[in-house]
Amino acid sequence: MFQTLAYYSSVFYRDFVAYTAKKLQSMGLHYGLLFFVVYIGKHPGASPSEMTSALRVDWGHSQRSITRLVEDGFMTKEKQGRSYVLNLTPKGQQAFELSHQVFVDWDAQRLSGLTQAERETLMGLLGRIALRQDAGQNG
Fold first, then answer.
1. Crossing angle of helices 48-55/31-42, nearest 10°?
2. pTM for the whole thing?
3. Alpha-carbon dihedral of residues 99, 6, 118, 110, nearest 10 degrees?
4. Which domains does the chain have, with CATH numbers?
5. pLDDT in tens, 1-42
6. 77 near 92, Cβ under 8 Å?
């Protein structure tokens, strides 16, 4: 089959989406909301604007996701001064912990055939690619 980064990225993406759906469905959470919960779990009190920028999503998508998470009891959105702050509820904290574990478990399962040195090399190379992407050097 194809041996390109794009091909392997799509394979891993599909596998991770299916894996997270299976693991998170019991909480009523799905892949599309996973990163919002993880972000607020790591950055309590962040504003919607900060989260939207950090996750690189458009404003409308971010607002719909926040509304859904608030309505489903995962997150609070409270006005402080002229802006809003986001925090996890106890249910959201539980979802954060489970979501974080999903990342750890998926990595462990997928990387189990590699030695520690191979894992470190792989993560180092992927990290370099991601840094170039973040710096806008992907063109």
1. 120
2. 0.82
3. 40
4. 5-134 (1.10.10.10)
5. 578 999 999 999 999 999 999 999 988 898 889 999 999 999
6. no
Tokens 């996701």 map to which residue?
A: 65
Both tokens of 111, joined, read 């990387």
Cα separation, 67 vs 65, whole angstroms: 5
18-126-134-106 Cα dihedral, nearest 10 degrees: 30
